[in-house]
Write a structure and sequence with these properties.
This protein has 99 residues and is an alpha+beta fold. The protein has two helices and six strands; from the N terminus they run βαββββαβ. It has helices spanning 15-24, 66-83, and strands spanning 3-11, 31-35, 37-40, 44-47, 57-65, 86-91. A four-stranded antiparallel β-sheet has the order 2-5-1-6, with helices on one face. The chain has a two-stranded antiparallel sheet with strand order 3-4. It is globular and about 35 Å long.
Length: 99
């Protein structure tokens, strides 16, 4: 079975809505990591110095089959288009300890 890793960067303001959509798409496990610093093409360097966690972004990632990842993209693309966010999908060559 081909495994894919899906990574999504989204504002913490919209994180719960994203997680709900992931679970409705069949995602059984994910990891969310708060981003404190980054640099992008559009906005340059970004430091999360705000006092409130909602002013920060998170990286959410999960591993799944092509079928699940396709469902995730279908269910979250419009959500991210409206709220801002980034999706990256990569093929996994090797994984251990997933089950």
């Amino acid at each position: 079975m081909d495994l894919l890793k899906i990574e999504i960067i989204i504002s913490n303001t919209f994180l719960q809505g994203l997680i709900e959509r992931l679970e409705k798409s069949g995602v059984h496990g994910y990891t969310a990591i708060e981003i404190f610093r980054g640099k992008g093409f559009k906005r340059g360097e970004h430091l999360s110095e705000g006092l409130l966690p909602i002013t920060r972004n998170s990286l959410v990632f999960s591993i799944g089959s092509r079928e699940i990842v396709d469902k995730v993209i279908e269910n979250i693309q419009a959500y991210l288009d409206e709220r801002g966010g980034l999706i990256i999908v990569t093929k996994i060559e090797y994984a251990s300890g997933l089950s």
